[in-house]
Specification:
globular; 19% helix; alpha+beta; four-stranded antiparallel beta sheet; five-stranded antiparallel beta sheet
Length: 220
């Protein structure tokens, strides 16, 4: 067997295995709300906010790992939050995705239209489903101007500091989960769905049978 033909066969098998893995995984409708808690008084010190590196996938991505979706399961929650003077919704989005093992799970970029919410989220499965959120409320974008760049605790304070909701927890589908923080909060709900038609059709087009015998590329 020629090396070139063997390489093509190995790549095809690898791609086929990855496609089957994403296709076979349970798909979910994912819906996320992120809101600011306006009337919270706290003396908590916020962490240093690093420069945000955007995740590859966004809720608007179209791929075998993610499909856009309409907001539909948390509309009443958004309406209730918006009626209250205590909260302000900055982000509400939905998408569809399979939930993979942790080593294969991709981060989803979370970024509000008003730029006040920035961060990422990852959903993965072990024995149970898990959700990991790392979200920032961008209250301050300027560096701290002070006679010293070092706090009394020895921490560098010359970079912007903003509220950070960083939490990972075990979750179940069909339940509404609240991620709490003194200055912001998030509501998350996952609903099992059938594999989207677009994914089923793409899998049918992308998978093909390998030849039973390699054909030489040059005469022997």
């Amino acid at each position: 067997m020629k090396i070139h033909t063997l390489t093509q066969a190995v790549l095809a098998i690898s791609f086929f295995a990855f496609s089957i893995n994403s296709y076979a995984s349970q798909w979910y409708h994912v819906e996320l709300i992120v809101f600011e808690q306006l009337q919270t008084v706290t003396d908590e010190q916020w962490p240093q906010m690093p420069e945000q590196e955007k995740a590859t996938l966004t809720p608007q991505s179209i791929s075998t790992l993610l499909q856009p979706a309409d907001n539909e399961t948390l509309l009443n929650s958004v309406a209730s939050l918006n009626r209250s003077a205590r909260y302000q919704v900055h982000y509400h989005s939905a998408w569809q995705q399979p939930i993979m093992e942790k080593r294969s799970a991709e981060f989803i970029d979370i970024h509000s239209d008003n730029d006040l919410i920035q961060g990422k989220m990852r959903l993965y499965k072990a024995t149970y489903l898990h959700a990991a959120l790392d979200l920032w409320l961008v209250e301050n974008t300027a560096q701290v101007n002070s006679w010293s760049d070092i706090s009394p605790d020895g921490l560098n304070i010359d970079m912007p500091r903003n509220p950070n909701l960083n939490e990972s927890r075990r979750i179940r589908s069909k339940k509404l989960y609240f991620f709490d923080h003194p200055k912001l909060g998030a509501l998350l709900k996952l609903t099992p769905i059938e594999t989207p038609i677009a994914i089923q059709e793409s899998e049918s087009l992308e998978t093909y049978s390998l030849p039973t015998e390699a054909t030489p590329t040059v005469a022997e």
